[in-house]
Predict the 3D structure of the following.
Amino acid sequence: MSKLWLNTDVLSEQAEKAGDTTSYAIAIRAGVQPSTMTRLFNRSTSPTLATLVALRDAYQLETIDSLVLEHEKVPA
């Protein structure tokens, strides 16, 4: 089973459109712990389904699919 990572490029793009330019601002809007967002941006943890749903809802995305990357597809 592949490990999933947060697609930070997609999230950052959507967050900037909403005026959120920091992981802290993203966390506050989504109702996620700021430390969780830091770990997700640093790729030291994988997102939970609950976190993906919170981010999807916060930034009005249609699905969570665009928010995840498989480990093999993560840029170096």
Remarks:
- The longest strand covers residues 4-6.
- The radius of gyration is 11 Å.
- The first helix runs from residue 8 to 17.
